[in-house]
Structure prediction request, 255 residues.
Amino acid sequence: MHHLAGLDALCGANGGGYGLALLVGLLAAGAAGSVLHCAAMCGPFVLGQVSDRLARIPPERLCEVARLRSGLLLPYHAGRLFTYTALGASVAAAGAVSNVGILRGTLPAVLLLFGALLFFCHALARLAPRLGPVLPVLEHAPPGWALGVRRLARGIDRNRRGGGFLLGAALGFLPCGFLYAAIAVAAATGGAIGGALAMLAFGLGTVPGLVIVGVAGQAAGRRWGRAVAVAAPLIMLGNAALLGVMAWHSLAAVA
Prediction:
């Protein structure tokens, strides 16, 4: 596997079948991340949208189907997935352009190892909370980045046509350690299509937890979270191991 030129290379004979495992791993990582991070950060935005939608439904039309439709927030999640997919395609294309000179052949391995490190640190932080202070800062972002995204989101009229999609697209830029790891993996695919699919898989994993919050409320989201949080460290460790093996194969091919 000389490089990870999109998911064709990942899933093909040279890819060793890692492509499907990578997508499944990122899907599971997104689900774990939605419990440990997204529900707390994006939950208020989700509940606010649901409340606005329910308030606009006439009392005579307020039924369980209407409640369910309001809680799904499909345009909002479509906006988030759009941002994630676009980010994946962009960083993968940039990674392919940068994979030249002294970095040629080694850049994908470096990116995979970086993603593995982030997933490993997340798992370790859950399994051994006392080590938290000595672990790398997993949610670090440029000063004011999260505040700027939140201000942008608050300036979007959610009641206008397309408002939910725009809100989701804006919130897709919120900083998150899980997101950094997924972006690093997407960049390592070396192709815009592979990067887009990698981030789409990650984004789809974040949807169920937020849908549960929207449909059944924050309390139900916490119950879902407790169930998934038990498996979250194992999911993170599994992803770290998979990315480590892929990085090893990539470096071996260069050597």
Residues 1-16 have pLDDT under 50 and may be disordered. DSSP finds ten helices and no strands in the chain. The first helix runs from residue 6 to 11. The CA atoms of residues 17 and 36 lie 29 Å apart.
